[in-house]
Amino acid sequence: MTQPLNILFLSSEVVPFAKTGGLADVSFALPQAIKELGHEIRVMMPKYGFISERKFGIHEIVRLREIDIPVGDKLQRGSAKASFIVGQKVKVQVYFLENEFYYNRDGLYVDSKTKKDYSDNDERFIFFCKGVLESLKKLGWRPDIIHCNDWQTALVPVYLKTLYKNEPFFNGVKTVLTIHNIGYQGIFGKESFYKSGLPDEIFREIEHNGNFNFLKAGILYSDVITTVSPTYAKEIISDDELGAGLSATLKKRRKDVYGILNGVDYSVWSPENDKYIPVPYSIQTIETKYENKKALLKHFGLEYNEEIPVVAQISRLAEQKGFDLIAEVIDEMMKLDIQYIVLGTGDPKYEEMLEKIKRKYPKKVGVHIGFSEELAHLIEAGADIFLMPSRYEPCGLNQMYSLRYGTVPVVRKTGGLADTVEEFNSKTGRGTGFLFEKYSGQDLLKALKKALSTYKIRKVWLKLMKNGMTKDFSWTTSAKKYVELYQKLMTPQKKARTVKAK
Ligand code: ADP
Ligand code: GLC
C-alpha cells in the first residue's frame, strides 16, 4: 500500500445518527470501506438535538469545548463532541458540531410542523463549514483530504481558498466535493453571502442568478468534484435540466468531474443476516423469502396469495422520485393482478395522494406514511417487485438493495438506475430487472406488465431473482476509486515537474 492518508469526511447525515435518505447510508459505509483500505478517516456532522448522547456514547473533547464562529454580525459559540460509527470490521471516529440555537431542533433541514425548510439553513451550514475548520485547528489534526458531500458542506473548499488560504495549518489540504443530488443546491439571497464572511470580490464569480448558491461555489472551488454514478456525471454536465442550471458551471470543471458508483453495505442489507426481517434467507433458501412476504402483507392487513406479486416502493416523497407517473396510471395499475405497497414521507401533496389511493383500493394497497428503517427492510425482503420510476436518480440505493433481496427492480433508465439494473432477456436468461426510458406513465406501465408476465413463469422468475442476488456492488470497489482520486490529488502536478526538469 502507498502512504496512508488522513481524510476528513463531512456530511449532514450519517447512519445511525441522522438520516433522510441515501446520503446517510453512504456516510456510514464509505468511511468504513476507506478505513479498511488502511487510511485514517474521520467523519464530522452537526449534532442535531434528537441525537442521543447516551445511546451513542457521545462524549466531550476538552480541546473542542468552545468554538467561536462569526456568522453575519453575530458570534456563535459551539463545541464539538465525539463518538464512533461501529462497523463489522472497523470503528470510525465521528465528531459532532454542536450549537443549541442552530441544531437543537427535531428536523435536519425541514421544520416538521410547517414542512418548510428552516429559514436559517444558510446560517446553520455556514456555521458548520467554518466550525469544521476551526475544530481541526483546535484539535491539531490536519487531514490531507477534506471530502465534502452536498451543498451543506460545500463552502469548506471556498473558505480554504479564501479566508484560510494563508493559514499554514491548512497548507496543501486538498478538497473533494461529492454531489449526491444536484437538485438541492443551497440557494439563498445575497444577504446570506454577507453572513458567510467570504470576500466581496468573489460574489461575482460564484453567484447564480443573483443568488448565493453554496453548491455552485463548492463546484468552482473544490479540487475535484465527484458524483455518485458515471451516467449521472454525464447527465448533469451535458443536460442543463438534469444539471438543474449548473451544467455550464460543471463544464468549466469538466476535467475534474468524476462519476463513482455508490456501493452497498452488505452487512446491513443482506437477507441472510438482516436483523429486522422475520425469516432470513439466501440464494440457497430462496423459498423462505415468501415467509417474509406473508409477514409484510400481514403488517398491512392484506391477503397473501402466492400468485399475486407485491409491487413496492420505499422513497422520499419528492418530485424527483416519479410519483406523478404513479398518479397518472394508478387506475390502470390497479386493474392488474398486483398488490401495491409504499413506505414514504415528504411532500404533503404525495402523502395525500397515496392515502387517497389506499382509501380507493383498500384490498390491494398498503401505505405507510413515515420513516421506518425496520419496515424498509421488511419491504425489501417481502416484496416481489421494486418500483423506482425516478425523473432523475443520481445513484439510488434501493434498487441495489432490492437486487440482493431477490426483489426485481422495475426502474426508469436514468442516472445510477441505468448503471445498476440490466434489462432481463428471457431468451438468454441474462439481466436483472426491467427498464423504461421515456418519462411517461404508459412506458412505466409497459415495463411493469413485462415484469408481471415474467413473474407468471416461475422458473424464469427464479432465474431473474438469482441473477440479481449474485450481483456484487460492495463498497470496496468504489472506496478504491475514491482513494485513487485522493492519491492523485496528493501527487505533485506533472506539469510543475516537467518545468523543473527543463
Ligand atoms: P435518496 O437518497 O434520493 O432518498 P436512495 O435510494 O439513495 O434515495 O436512498 C434512500 C435511502 O433511504 C434508502 O436506504 C431507503 O431505504 C431509505 N428510505 C427512504 N425513505 C424511507 C422511509 N420512509 N423509511 C425508511 N427508509 C427510507
Ligand atoms: C441522493 C440521491 C440518490 C443517491 C443518494 C446517495 O439523495 O437522490 O440517488 O443514491 O444521494 O448518494
From TrEMBL:
Reactions listed under catalytic activity: [(1->4)-alpha-D-glucosyl](n) + ADP-alpha-D-glucose = [(1->4)-alpha-D-glucosyl](n+1) + ADP + H(+)
Functional pathway: Glycan biosynthesis; glycogen biosynthesis
InterPro entries (UniProt xref): Glyco_trans_1 (IPR001296), GS/SS (IPR011835), Starch_synth_cat_dom (IPR013534)
Protein's name in the database: Glycogen synthase
UniProt record, GO biological process: glycogen biosynthetic process
Starch synthase catalytic domain residues: 6-251
Key word Transferase present: yes
EC top class named in words: transferase
EC number(s) from the headed UniProt entry: 2.4.1.21
Record's keyword terms, sorted: Glycogen biosynthesis, Glycosyltransferase, Transferase
Residues binding ADP-alpha-D-glucose: 19
Ranges where the Glycosyl transferase family domain occurs: 302-461
HAMAP family documented for this protein: Glycogen_synth
Known role: Synthesizes alpha-1,4-glucan chains using ADP-glucose.
Transmembrane segments: none
UniProt superkingdom: Bacteria
Assigned protein family: Belongs to the glycosyltransferase 1 family. Bacterial/plant glycogen synthase subfamily.
Organism expressing this protein natively: Candidatus Kryptonium thompsonii
Lineage of the species this protein comes from: Bacteria, Pseudomonadati, Candidatus Kryptoniota, Candidatus Kryptonium
Gene Ontology molecular functions: alpha-1,4-glucan glucosyltransferase (ADP-glucose donor) activity; alpha-1,4-glucan glucosyltransferase (UDP-glucose donor) activity
